[in-house]
């Protein structure tokens, strides 16, 4: 047989063998199905910044082709290892190597065959995009949301992104399999590639360290693709190809050309003796047993000690893991990667430096390491469960009289311990970072609780799910592929959004708003219940694995399952089901019935129903003031409210209001007469009658229950642990909130609404950052028997904090509230407040009163000044160090909040079109100018450039159509664009002109012609001019 014929024959044999195994088909169908499911999910497409382009646009092709590659790392490891292992498994290795054939040709042929199979696996993503029009034909997505196949982009992704890396990395897998004669080495390389991917994405790209190095080290080229796509406009996302930068060519040379050259050199020097002399790693040898002189041999077996046997088996399984140096080396590398990620994103952050406290570093490190740890856990489960897959050994073990659950529970014990060790890695990395950079902020107890109750349960859930797959599937390769594919689906569920209910999000850590200010006390009931649910589910998984575990050559029978139900598996199953029922009912009660959890589809449906039911009755309204009384019981988490509104005038003869979560109006009176109100979908409508023309006196009575648990990770604001009271949480917000509208045309059409977003009638909107417009307001708040009262003539808004773990300190006439680890930071913040208040007074003619300054816990809303109480959000304002960009940004933020309060109080602004320009544009520009005054042009130029970067990212990620600034949402790209667009104009205005401007919306309810040009759509020319003028020192 000539060389070419031998090459083609071996390649063909390898292709047929690979396809017959069923694993490529499983992976191919799984990835294709995953892609199609992703394209049907509007929220996922919106997160990818593709709401204005087709769902099969080139930008999505590039991102998903490279983003899904980390799963293919493990699939390719199995595919390219099979040519080196298949003959040995069939005991034909000696026969094959003795044949008078060219060994390099034979090995090259097998590699070519494996490359074909690997290329077919990579093409699954391309096939998914080709099949995407089927989604429109079936009606699963709007037909207009799927465009014609972008053949040039598909070809580019196949030729430039997928095929080269498949062959290049495959060469490395092939070499390792030839050398080790086992699967451990290729899977180890796959893990290393995952670590490199994480290092490039999280450390290099996330830390803005070196784009060229990030693009070069990332084998998947995701960093290369994402860096370009996130800056593209909608037109570019629909038609552009990726630019082939030096980073691209360096990456292809490193991961494609060099591995193939190395393979050619190694295969040319490979000998038959070298291949025959290599064996896969054996089990750790037990110490030799020696018979002591006076020892007697045991007699016949009289009793079975299965618990002792279980202990011995578990110890042996654990010893196989912990006694291997490679495991500790891998754990050390993971720890070093975590520490490096923490230093880059915290200590050396581009907007820092930051102080590495536990409530800042734990979520960051856990998010950065979770994906890698999840795949390591899945691979480790396979190695543990398949360790006994040695010919003859499995049959010997199954012939023993040991119960079927004994070895399975030993696997569970070993897997659980290994998973726990891996789950502690982010916590240990956090402690080490704190010990090095901020020894005073060490909190080992805080870290341990997070790792054990937040991070470890989902990993254990994933591990036991993978163990179930290996227990039910006899074929080792198929079980590996199935478990890895399942892991891929589960860990990406939070991106795909197929399941959003916390209890049903398997293998996903729950989102917890960490804050040293509130501690763990408010989270204990939720975390204990959710952990109980997950552990009970783990018991069910173990029980099902024990029931279905095959034993012996006989086929599984119903009678065998019945018999096992009467033993330990049945007990585990019963206990697990009862635990899931109890904890599941408790979770549903607090998350859904009493809480605010809604799936994305439910939220969209409620917004559409709100618009259909209430918007038609919107009309202008005014109120002169009133009196408010609140009674708060922190122990029962209940609030009772009574609000008298004076001289209420409404064109529609009805008063509308938006209701906070959990508030229910119990009674209403108009001019002393009881009236029947309408309330639903967190909205209230009070009929006013004839007095709506001359002015009504309205009384509202309500109760509010805050016993629910936050579904989106928001912090607890009311409870025995402390009270963090804001008016918006306990009082109806008068008017209509335009932020509740659906903005995406496809969503509106699907919900039966007009594609065009409607406009509210003049003076019908809610007050900007207040619950009611300016008037003569009085309020009295009673908390557990203690009262506080105040009054104001500004828009109605207030905030109070009564924490139980700390107390306020008076610093130069301002009461400052911060946790014990931020005492020094509170002094720095107080200094920043003084400097920025003086600057705002110069720029606007006056500065707002600040009586109290509080570290506002994480996930309790953005910073704001509320009736003399400055609520400064914990992140990042309370995390930055004393010097650097972070402190400049904090000063700019404080000045912006102070200026916003002055402007909103003077203008009595509603959420009318363009209010973002005054609230964010003018206030944000004054913040930048104040940093210029206090820190110099260098500081100002740095912050302007950072804000421009934020704008670019916000525009690329915005899932809603980009309109004008006057139509934008408050928390959107407008927060970054408005200050940059307004900076030059604001800098030219004297204080008197700026304050005179605030009278325009109060009197005329429209913006003067001088600022109309600033309210248009985002302009590249405007940003370029701002960078040229203000982005240089």
From TrEMBL:
The keyword Metal-binding does not apply. The keyword Cytoplasm does not apply. This is Uncharacterized protein. The lineage of its organism: Bacteria, Pseudomonadati, Pseudomonadota, Gammaproteobacteria, Pseudomonadales. It comes from the Bacteria. Keywords: Membrane, Transmembrane, Transmembrane helix. The chain crosses the membrane at residues 21-40, 60-81, 111-135, 155-176, 183-204, 249-268, 326-348, 360-384, 404-437, 449-473, 485-504, 524-549, 570-588.
């Amino acid at each position: 047989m000539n060389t070419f014929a031998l090459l083609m024959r071996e390649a063909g044999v390898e292709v047929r063998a690979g396809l017959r195994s069923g694993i490529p088909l499983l992976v191919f169908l799984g990835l294709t199905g995953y892609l199609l499911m992703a394209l049907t999910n509007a929220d996922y497409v919106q997160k990818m910044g593709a709401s204005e382009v087709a769902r099969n646009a080139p930008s999505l092709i590039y991102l998903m082709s490279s983003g899904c590659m980390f799963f293919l790392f493990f699939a390719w490891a199995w595919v390219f290892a099979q040519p080196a292992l298949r003959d040995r498994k069939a005991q034909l290795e000696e026969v094959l190597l003795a044949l008078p054939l060219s060994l390099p040709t034979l090995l090259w042929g097998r590699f070519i065959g494996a490359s074909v199979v690997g290329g077919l696996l990579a093409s699954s993503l391309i096939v998914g995009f080709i099949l995407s029009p089927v989604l429109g034909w079936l009606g699963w997505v709007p037909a207009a949301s799927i465009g014609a196949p972008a053949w040039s982009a598909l070809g580019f992704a196949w030729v430039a992104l997928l095929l080269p890396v498949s062959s290049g990395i495959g060469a490395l897998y092939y070499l390792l399999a030839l050398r080790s004669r086992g699967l451990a080495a290729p899977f180890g390389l796959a893990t290393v590639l995952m670590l490199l991917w994480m290092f490039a994405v999280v450390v290099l790209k996330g830390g803005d360290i070196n784009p060229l190095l990030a693009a070069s080290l990332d084998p998947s080229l995701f960093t290369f693709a994402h860096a370009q796509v996130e800056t593209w406009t909608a037109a570019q996302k629909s038609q552009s190809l990726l630019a082939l930068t030096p980073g691209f060519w360096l990456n292809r040379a490193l991961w494609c050309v060099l591995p193939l050259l190395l393979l050619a050199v190694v295969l040319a020097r490979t000998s038959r003796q070298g291949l025959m002399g290599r064996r896969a790693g054996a089990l750790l040898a037990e110490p030799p047993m020696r018979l002591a002189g006076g020892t007697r041999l045991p007699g016949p077996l009289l009793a079975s000690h299965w618990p002792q046997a279980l202990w011995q088996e578990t110890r042996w399984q654990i010893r196989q893991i912990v006694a291997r140096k490679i495991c500790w080396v891998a754990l050390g590398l993971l720890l070093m990667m975590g520490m490096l990620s923490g230093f880059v994103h915290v200590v050396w952050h581009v907007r820092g430096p930051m102080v590495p406290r536990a409530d800042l570093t734990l979520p960051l490190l856990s998010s950065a390491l979770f994906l890698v740890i999840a795949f390591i856990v899945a691979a480790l489960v396979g190695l543990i469960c398949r360790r006994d897959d040695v010919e003859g050994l499995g049959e010997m073990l199954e012939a023993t009289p040991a119960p079927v659950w004994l070895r399975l529970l030993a696997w569970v014990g070993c897997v659980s311990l290994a998973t726990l060790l891996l789950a502690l890695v982010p916590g240990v990395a956090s402690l080490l970072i704190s010990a090095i950079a901020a020894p005073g902020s060490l909190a080992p107890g805080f870290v341990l609780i997070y790792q054990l109750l937040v991070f470890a349960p989902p990993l254990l859930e994933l591990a036991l799910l993978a163990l179930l797959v290996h227990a039910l599937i006899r074929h080792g390769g198929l079980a590996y592929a199935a478990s890895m594919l399942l892991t891929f689906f589960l860990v990406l569920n939070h991106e795909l959004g197929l399941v959003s209910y916390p209890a049903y999000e398997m293998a996903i850590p729950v989102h917890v708003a960490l804050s040293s200010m509130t501690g763990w006390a408010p989270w204990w009931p939720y975390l204990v219940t959710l952990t109980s649910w997950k552990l009970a589910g783990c018991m069910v998984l173990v029980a099902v694995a024990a029931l279905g575990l095959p034993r012996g050559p006989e086929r599984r029978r119903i009678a065998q399952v019945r018999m096992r139900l009467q033993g330990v598996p049945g007990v585990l199953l019963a206990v697990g089901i009862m635990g899931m029922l109890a904890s599941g009912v408790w979770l549903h009660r607090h998350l859904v019935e009493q809480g605010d959890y809604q799936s994305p589809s439910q939220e969209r449906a409620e917004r559409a129903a709100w618009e259909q039911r209430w918007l038609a009755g919107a009309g202008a309204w005014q109120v002169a003031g009133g009196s408010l009384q609140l009674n708060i019981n922190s122990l029962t988490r209940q609030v009772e409210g009574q609000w008298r509104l004076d001289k209420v005038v409404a064109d529609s003869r009805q008063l509308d209001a938006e209701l906070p979560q959990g508030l229910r109006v119990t009674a209403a009176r108009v001019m002393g007469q009881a009236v029947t109100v309408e309330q639903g979908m967190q909205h209230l409508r009070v009929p006013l009658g004839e007095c709506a023309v001359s002015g009504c006196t309205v009384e509202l009575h309500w109760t509010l229950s805050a016993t629910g648990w936050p579904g989106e990770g928001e912090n607890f604001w009311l409870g025995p642990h402390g009270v963090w009271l804001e008016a918006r949480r306990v009082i109806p917000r008068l008017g209509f909130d335009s932020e509740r509208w659906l903005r995406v045309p496809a969503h509106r059409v699907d919900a039966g609404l007009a594609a065009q977003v409607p406009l509210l009638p003049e003076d019908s909107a809610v007050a900007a950052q207040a619950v009611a417009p300016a008037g003569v307001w009085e309020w009295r708040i009673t908390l557990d028997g203690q009262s506080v009262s105040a009054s104001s003539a500004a828009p109605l808004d207030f905030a109070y904090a009564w924490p139980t773990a700390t107390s306020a300190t008076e610093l130069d006439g301002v009461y400052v509230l911060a946790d014990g680890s931020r005492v020094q930071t509170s002094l720095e913040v107080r200094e920043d407040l003084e400097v920025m208040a003086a600057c705002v007074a110069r720029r606007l003619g006056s500065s707002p009163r600040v009586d109290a300054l509080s570290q506002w816990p994480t996930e309790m809303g953005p910073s704001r000044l509320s009736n003399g109480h400055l609520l400064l959000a914990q992140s990042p304002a309370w995390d930055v160090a004393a010097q650097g960009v972070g402190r400049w940004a904090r000063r700019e933020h404080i000045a912006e909040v102070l200026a916003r309060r002055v402007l909103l109080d003077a203008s009595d602004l509603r959420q009318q079109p363009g209010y973002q320009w005054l609230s964010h544009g003018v206030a944000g520009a004054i913040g930048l100018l104040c940093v210029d005054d206090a820190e110099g042009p260098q500081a100002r130029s740095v912050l302007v450039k950072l804000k421009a970067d934020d704008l670019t990212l916000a525009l690329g990620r915005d899932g809603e159509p980009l309109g004008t600034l006057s139509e934008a949402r408050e928390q959107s790209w407008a927060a970054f664009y408005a200050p940059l667009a307004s900076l030059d104009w604001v800098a030219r205005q004297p204080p008197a002109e700026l304050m005179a401007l605030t009278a325009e919306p109060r009197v005329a309810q429209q913006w003067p012609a001088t600022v109309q040009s600033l309210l248009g759509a985002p302009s590249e020319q405007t940003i370029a001019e701002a960078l040229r003028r203000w982005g240089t020192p």
